[in-house]
Structure formats: structure tokens, C-alpha cells
């Protein structure tokens, strides 16, 4: 990627950030702008794009609990939604063809079905970026969203495989033996240590999975996902995912820029794309209804539905294959590129206000809930705790153990990740699995005996959201938080938190204290 790509991507991404939009919106607009100026895409851009998507699926796989895909609320929501969207879009497309709208007028039933299939997918790239920015990938609604996206991605890969008329090799059956490689892959990662060799190992594994699947006639990205799933759940998988995060984000810029180089749109194409984007709220609403019918709580269903309120890059792949077989006009590839771009912008804006929208519509949302909820959605609350620690990662765990040792008080940890909470409970700590950003959680907590709430979570926006919930339930005790950066520290102090620690600075101070005590011995 030469200077022009870096310059334009940065300028548009920076501009989007200044108006509180995700940078990806700027990257999308930059791609169309470069194309309109006559800039020709280089092969390196496509390489970066492919690598970004491969690393994205690889990092998703590292955090995926494969057993979650077998839950009814996951596969049921994914398959029911896809079936209904394909049916409704087919009917609507044929209706628009009857009205003689441009580009729809040449569609037959098969073409309409293919368009229905293309828009039935939601974007893994967009949804994961939204969830990552809010640090909600491992929250209940984040896991539901990821599970649905994985099932959709598998369906898309299967379609592309069969549509390409390329039958997988008989050797593809040998892939069922891949789980036997898990201990060897983990041993390899452990030998890599914690430095620059670890992310390189991630690249190696992601590419190796892709090459292996390509050799047997399957999609490369699916191979990267499967290899990552093999090692998910191990402590090294979390470290590997963190080491790849910044690489993935940089390479995905190539993906967002490349969408704009699909083709230059005409006004008729833009109009056709906008017609299809009108149905985005219906797509999100359909997800919400299906999820609540499958006994998910209203908040989980609502936040998941907003994350999925977009169209997918896999839709472009479906349409591209259909154009290649002569089943759709080539203009539909441009229209779908516009549809995907508009939906990314819509989804990014919508999700930036997700928690505010839930607070406004909560009274109506909860009316859709079933009386019986799923075991994972039962609200667990602390009992008679005087100090609550929100977030039981390394910082929260250290704070918990220190408080127990020095104050012998009644301390309770609150952890959103179910497995981590279970591990703490097994270790004898008083921890409950709950989402502290859920207003219903705080309405069930008896705060009368809580003297202090400590925020041990890294994202200051999450802390600000929780403080809002505490204000709604009239919490009047003390609050303490952590921050990575000084500007975030000031925002937390301004919102009413009594004391905020920059944990990088405090780690250094604690280290110095220990050294001084050693000198004095």
C-alpha cells in the first residue's frame, strides 16, 4: 500500500472519528472517492483485503465456543431469519420487477432468489468491529451475534463452493482428523513465548489453515476459522488474539477500501441500493422477534439485532458468482457494493446509540420477552456485599485478592464472561456472572449495603454506561475506576467517579514500592 492509500484512508477515517462515526465509514467513502478520481487499485490492496478477512475469521475462531453453535437460540435464529429474508426479498424483487423499476425489471425467479440469498447475510466484519469497539464480543449478546454470523458464513461458503461447480476433493474427508493436531499446535504456541514470534505464529496458522482447505477444494477463510477453533478455550488463544488485533485492523482497511473499487455507480444504481436499504430496520426487527420467541431476553435480542442490522461482504461473493454464471446482470454487483456500504454506515450509526436506544425503548422491548428465560439469561446478583468489583480479569482479580487479604470484607466480583466467572467460583472466589451494563441487573441488586463499586474494566465507555445505570437506581456510595489514558481518566472523574487510577502508572509505583521495601530489609 503506497502513500496515497495511507493518506486518504487516514484523512477519511480521522474525519469520521471526529463526528463520532467509526473510522470504517471513512474508509468506505475513501474507496469510492479514490475510484471516482480514477485511481487504479493495486494487487497489494486485494492481498491486504484477503489477509484482513482471513485474520478476522481466525481471531473470531480463537474466541468461539463451538458448542454454542448447537444452541437453539443460535442456529434457530440464523436459519429461520435466512429463510424468511430470502422469501420476502424474492417476493419484493419480483414485485419491483412487475412495477418496472430499473435493474429489477430483468429479474426472473432465480435471479430474485439469488438477491434474497445475498441480502440474508449480515456482515461479520462490520458486526465484529462494532462489538470490539464496545468491548462486548464476550458479552451474552456478543456471543449470540458471533454464533449467528458463523452459521451464516458457513452457509455462504457452502453456496460459493457448490456454485463454483468445483467439487471438493475426496481428501477433504481427512479434515475430520484436524482435532488430533490441537495438542501439537498448543505446544507450538507455548514454545513461541510472548514476543514477536507469537503473532507471526498466528499468521502462519491462519495461512496454513487456508492453504490446507484450498488444496482440498474448500474456501480458504473457512480453513483459518477451523484452525482457530481447534485451539479456542486455551489460555494461549486469548494471548494470540490480542497480539493479532492491531494487525487485523490495519489489514481490514484494505477490505473497506476495496469495496469502493467494485465499480462506479449511476443514479439508478444508487436508487436501487437505497430501496434495498429501506428494509434494514425490518431485517433487524425480524431478528429481534425470532430471538425473543426463542426465549432470549429482550435486551440480548435487541442488542444482537442491532449488531446484525447490515448486509454482508459475502453478499458480494454470492452476486459475483451469480454474475459469472449469467444469472444476474453485472450491474447488480455494483448495486450490492452500494447496499453493503450504505448498510455499514447505517449499522455503525445505529450501534453507536445502541444502549441509549435500549434505555428509551426498554419498557416496550421487555413486553416481547417470554415468561420462561434460558439458563444463560438468568440474572445473578451478589448477596450482602459491601464492595463490588466489576470485571474479574487480571486487574480485578488482583484487587479482589488484595481486598480479601487486607480488609477481610465481603467482596463480590461481577464478570460478564461465563467461563471466567465459573473459573473464579471454582477457585473459591465470590463471583457472579452478570452484565453490569444491563439496567435490569442493577434493579435486582440490593445496593443499601454496598459501600464501594470498583470498575476493573479497560474500556472507559463501558464504565460511563454503568455509571448511568447506577444513577438511575440512586446509588450514592463511593466509586473507583481505572483508565489507560489521561484524557479518559478526566472523563471518568467528570462523570462522578471518586478516584481513577492509570494502572500503567500505578503498576510502576507498586513496583517501586516493592523494590524500596527490599532495599530496607
Please provide a written account of the structure.
The protein has 521 residues and is mainly alpha-helical. The protein folds into 2 domains: 3-368, Na+/H+ antiporter like fold; 379-520, Rossmann fold. Helices cover 65% and strands 5% of the residues. The chain has 23 helices and 6 strands. The protein has helices spanning 3-18, 23-36, 43-62, 72-99, 109-120, 124-133, 140-163, 182-192, 197-215, 220-231, 235-259, 267-277, 280-293, 298-307, 313-324, 331-352, 354-365, 394-407, 418-426, 439-444, 460-472, 486-494, 503-520, and strands at 387-390, 411-415, 431-433, 452-455, 478-483, 499-502. The protein has a 6-stranded parallel β-sheet with strand order 3-2-1-4-5-6. Helix 19 links the parallel strand 2 and strand 3. It is globular, with a radius of gyration of 24 Å. The termini are far apart. 44% of the residues are buried.
CATH architecture of the largest domain: Up-down Bundle
Uncertain ranges:
none
How many domains, in number, for the residues? 2
Number of strands: 6
Layout of secondary structure:
Elements: H1 3-18, H2 23-36, H3 43-62, H4 72-99, H5 109-120, H6 124-133, H7 140-163, H8 182-192, H9 197-215, H10 220-231, H11 235-259, H12 267-277, H13 280-293, H14 298-307, H15 313-324, H16 331-352, H17 354-365, E1 387-390, H18 394-407, E2 411-415, H19 418-426, E3 431-433, H20 439-444, E4 452-455, H21 460-472, E5 478-483, H22 486-494, E6 499-502, H23 503-520
Parallel strand pairs: 1-2, 1-4, 2-3, 4-5, 5-6
Helix pairs in contact: 1-2, 2-11, 2-16, 3-10, 3-11, 4-5, 4-7, 4-13, 5-15, 6-7, 7-14, 7-15, 9-10, 9-11, 12-16, 13-14, 14-17, 15-16
Amino acid at each position: 500500500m503506497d502513500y496515497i492509500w495511507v493518506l486518504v484512508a487516514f484523512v477519511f477515517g480521522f474525519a469520521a472519528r471526529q463526528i463520532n462515526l467509526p473510522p470504517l465509514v471513512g474508509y468506505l467513502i475513501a474507496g469510492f472517492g479514490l475510484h471516482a478520481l480514477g485511481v487504479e487499485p493495486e494487487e497489494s490492496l486485494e492481498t491486504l483485503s484477503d489477509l484482513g478477512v482471513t485474520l478476522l475469521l481466525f481471531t473470531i475462531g480463537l474466541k468461539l465456543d463451538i458448542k454454542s453453535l448447537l444452541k437453539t437460540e443460535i442456529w434457530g435464529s440464523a436459519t429461520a431469519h435466512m429463510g424468511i429474508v430470502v422469501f420476502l426479498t424474492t417476493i419484493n424483487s419480483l414485485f419491483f420487477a412487475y412495477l418496472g423499476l430499473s435493474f429489477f425489471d430483468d429479474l426472473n425467479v432465480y435471479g430474485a432468489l439469488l438477491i434474497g440469498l445475498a441480502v440474508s447475510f449480515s456482515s461479520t466484519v462490520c458486526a465484529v468491529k462494532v462489538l470490539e469497539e464496545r468491548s462486548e464480543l464476550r458479552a451474552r449478546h456478543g456471543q449470540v451475534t458471533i454464533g449467528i454470523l458463523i452459521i451464516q458464513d458457513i452457509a455462504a461458503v457452502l453456496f460459493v463452493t457448490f456454485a463454483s461447480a468445483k467439487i471438493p476433493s475426496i481428501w477433504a474427508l481427512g479434515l475430520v482428523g484436524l482435532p488430533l493436531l490441537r495438542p501439537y499446535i498448543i505446544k507450538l504456541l507455548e514454545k513461541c513465548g510472548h514476543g514477536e514470534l507469537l503473532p507471526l505464529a498466528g499468521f502462519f496458522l491462519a495461512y496454513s489453515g487456508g492453504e490446507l482447505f484450498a488444496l482440498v477444494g474448500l474456501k480458504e477463510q473457512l480453513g483459518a476459522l477451523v484452525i482457530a477453533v481447534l485451539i479456542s478455550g486455551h489460555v494461549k488463544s486469548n494471548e494470540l488474539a490480542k497480539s493479532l488485533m492491531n494487525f487485523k485492523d490495519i489489514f481490514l482497511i484494505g477490505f473497506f477500501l476495496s469495496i469502493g473499487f467494485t465499480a462506479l455507480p449511476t443514479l439508478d444504481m444508487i436508487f436501487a441500493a437505497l430501496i434495498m436499504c429501506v428494509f434494514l430496520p425490518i431485517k433487524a426487527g425480524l431478528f429481534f422477534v425470532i430471538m425473543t420467541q426463542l426465549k432470549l431476553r429482550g435486551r440480548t435480542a435487541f442488542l444482537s439485532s442491532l449488531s446484525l442490522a447490515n448486509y454482508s461482504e459475502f453478499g458480494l461473493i454470492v452476486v459475483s458468482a451469480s454474475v459469472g454464471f449469467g444469472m444476474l446482470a453485472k450491474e447488480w454487483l455494483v448495486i450490492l457494493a452500494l447496499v453493503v456500504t450504505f448498510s455499514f454506515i447505517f449499522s455503525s450509526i445505529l450501534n453507536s446509540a445502541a444502549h441509549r436506544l435500549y434505555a428509551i425503548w426498554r419498557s416496550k422491548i421487555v413486553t416481547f420477552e417470554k415468561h420462561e428465560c434460558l439458563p444463560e439469561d438468568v440474572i445473578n446478583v451478589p448477596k450482602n456485599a459491601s464492595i463490588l468489583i466489576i470485571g474479574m480479569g487480571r486487574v480485578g482479580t488482583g484487587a479482589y485478592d488484595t481486598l480479601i487479604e487486607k480488609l477481610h470484607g465481603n467482596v463480590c466480583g461481577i464478570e460478564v464472561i461465563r467461563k471466567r466467572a465459573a473459573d473464579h467460583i471454582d477457585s473459591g472466589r465470590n463471583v457472579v456472572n452478570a452484565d453490569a451494563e444491563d439496567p435490569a441487573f442493577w434493579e435486582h441488586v440490593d445496593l443499601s449495603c454496598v459501600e464501594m463499586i470498583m470498575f476493573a474494566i479497560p474500556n472507559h465507555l463501558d464504565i460511563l454506561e454503568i455509571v448511568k445505570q447506577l444513577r438511575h437506581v440512586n446509588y450514592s456510595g463511593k466509586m473507583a475506576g481505572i483508565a489507560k489514558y489521561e484524557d479518559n481518566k478526566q472523563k471518568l472523574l467528570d462523570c462522578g467517579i471518586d478516584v481513577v487510577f492509570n494502572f500503567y502508572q500505578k503498576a510502576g509505583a507498586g513496583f517501586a514500592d516493592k523494590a524500596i521495601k527490599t532495599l530496607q530489609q
